[in-house]
Amino acid sequence: MIPADALSELVSMLGERLTTGKSDLALHGRSETWHPEMPPDAVAYPDDTGEVAAIVAVCARHGIPVIGWGTGTALEGHASAPRGGLTVDFRRMDRVLEVAAEDMLVRVQPGCTREALNTELRATGLMFPVDPGANASLGGMASTRASGTTAVRYGTMHDHVRALEVVLADGRVIRTGTRAAKSSAGYDLTALFVGAEGTLGLITELTLKLHGVPEAISAAVCGFDTTEGAIDAVILAMQMGLAPARMEYVDLATVRILNAADDAGLPEMPHLLLEFHGTEEGVAADAARFGEIAADLGGHDYRWATRAEDRTRLWSMRHRAYHTILATRPGATAIVTDVCVPISALGQAIGRATAEIDASPLDGPILGHVGDGNYHAILMVDRADPAEVAEAKRLSDAMVTHALELGGTATGEHGVGLGKLHLMEAEHGRAWDVMGAVKRALDPDGLMNPGKLVRQN
Amino acid sequence: MIPADALSELVSMLGERLTTGKSDLALHGRSETWHPEMPPDAVAYPDDTGEVAAIVAVCARHGIPVIGWGTGTALEGHASAPRGGLTVDFRRMDRVLEVAAEDMLVRVQPGCTREALNTELRATGLMFPVDPGANASLGGMASTRASGTTAVRYGTMHDHVRALEVVLADGRVIRTGTRAAKSSAGYDLTALFVGAEGTLGLITELTLKLHGVPEAISAAVCGFDTTEGAIDAVILAMQMGLAPARMEYVDLATVRILNAADDAGLPEMPHLLLEFHGTEEGVAADAARFGEIAADLGGHDYRWATRAEDRTRLWSMRHRAYHTILATRPGATAIVTDVCVPISALGQAIGRATAEIDASPLDGPILGHVGDGNYHAILMVDRADPAEVAEAKRLSDAMVTHALELGGTATGEHGVGLGKLHLMEAEHGRAWDVMGAVKRALDPDGLMNPGKLVRQN
User: What value of ipTM does the predicted structure carry?
Assistant: First the structure.
């Protein structure tokens, strides 16, 4: 509940940009996946940092929880409001503020999406490569330390946020980092706020690293006798310094679904899909070298191409996979697992996950950002059926337990939110207490996105 | 002062590995540069993490400052003991614990030096590329977020520390990070301890990322009519995705010193030195492409080579530069500046710095890791002459003030220590208060490397 005097302060500041309408609250309490609806008590649509700071200051004074909202595409209930409070929706703060081409930097507001940014960059020869699939907001991507298919070459949001402007829990505004490429000037607060899921403050501006659009791109696809062979090919390619821009794994279950759905005629085996970025000669050489590696490790039917339309055709199985998988069970909701393990253990992790899914009543084809050791099982459930949701959560937790035994992590790129909170102690041990100490130091009243990430009181 | 009962506890634990001899204390109070000697009251030489934790617990109980020590090569007095206390020297914890070749990771103790690590890796085809010049310990390099000539391609210590074991201020031992290539599981504590200069805890184990030894290397050298032309060539090369492994600037003053010292016969102009890593064809193509870029921007006498002995010859001006510069004034101590600016502002920054050094009685040739926007003026002083030391500090502070105006940082790779403490508020504003809050949360009694990095009470 928001006290009446706080509400009237917010309304007098924001006018119609402060809403308490039922449908708007419901929208901001929803999550992409199985989490139940947890709506806030109000939603604010600020126009600038000054307004965000003033909103947060009002909430601090009245003890009102504050939750940041980008596009609502988080997968673990990050932006839901389990304790009510005020959701700050950044959709009006969506501008590209500055493109600094020589420094290969861009300054954006948090509500700007990655696709909008790349559209804005089109004439510059520069690109922002982090691609989590969804057209997420950049503030949200930073807050969940998102990554996706291109992380194997370009890195995650951790590697792309050069500097931040942040509104702290008491309404103070700080700037972290500089525009310089590196710094040894004290604690890396930028890295602390990236992945903090809004529990330490609200990001109101980001300075992001850009990359040159590659002169040429080649794409390749290859079937493998075994998952192990595919992963060994990946390991060898990385050790040889091939540095593919994307390196995706598609499992046998997915290939069978694609063949059944539209007669794709793919060899019934796991596949790797690759993309190389560089010069004309470089990407041709890289694709050829990968072919040699694959041939030694049980690879079949290796094909590669550099023309855009041929590349799209080669990658179509990956592009169609998620929706074709979901279409096998109309009305189903996907619960997507997200463990990440050292690549040497990836074959073992995927092998055990496949066996556990095979032994379960649920279907769960596996796709993987295999160069990072990160894979996703697309567990399909009827979210109205508690037994199915529980079974999916059991499978996901079993994958996490195994990943932790293998030296991995509960979440490679989706984040903690509500869905992975119960696994943090197992992953971090006493280091989770240290996260709690940092949280209390920066947000002593526990108002920033409460209920998420750190131990709950 | 260490109370007698604390000292006897430490001696009964460590025996002769706890010293209070004058020469040992003096050695651990010394710094590479102008800072006065600030010795600790005792030095401990632990053998393992358990001992470090026990030592820190004793110090916590008795209120004794604890300072970590690697090789003593820090440049800003990071490891001196302005408040006395106990220095923990990691020289006996210098082992490579595990090489995980498939995961391209290595686990080391903090006292292991980067050269010792690379020697150990020789048979594996892997390398650890971060190269700050000095043969520093890896724990020290992590603690100062060190980098050096290869950061333009491979990144800094920030990019190479995958996981840590840390002894906290109260003696608890935590592990941060995992062996997985990426994670979204909570606050990035690894990034928080990297660059914390031992003020939040002592690093007792590091898991570091490795890279494949490149199949081929090419080196190149080029004179430029102007510093601006050289920097424009660097910017264009980066935008074109050339990704050199090293890209070093040597100023006109340095070239004149080299010509005078040993008749080097170099064209009297600023130079760039480059190194490319990749395949045989790739590094040849990169070197050729850079030549085309340089020719358009006032480059002269461009030469490149791939054979090891030819490469060494091309780079000899860079390898000899520091010592040849120092030899111009026998007995002088170098005060080395370390600002880092956005690369678009680097010409302006070096231009103003050169003018200010020219107007000063001190000499200060400039070398730069120019792909990062980081440069060093080698200011030569008689450290017994307070006026000269003050003039060098004035010049260094003026470069920092200008760098901050240009969106840069006071220190690109050397760190804060004692020498840059007075500049932190100017660089970070209120964010420096946040660093203080984190410090108090993790080290409430202020015993971990006191007097450094955060605001002093």
Answer: 0.97
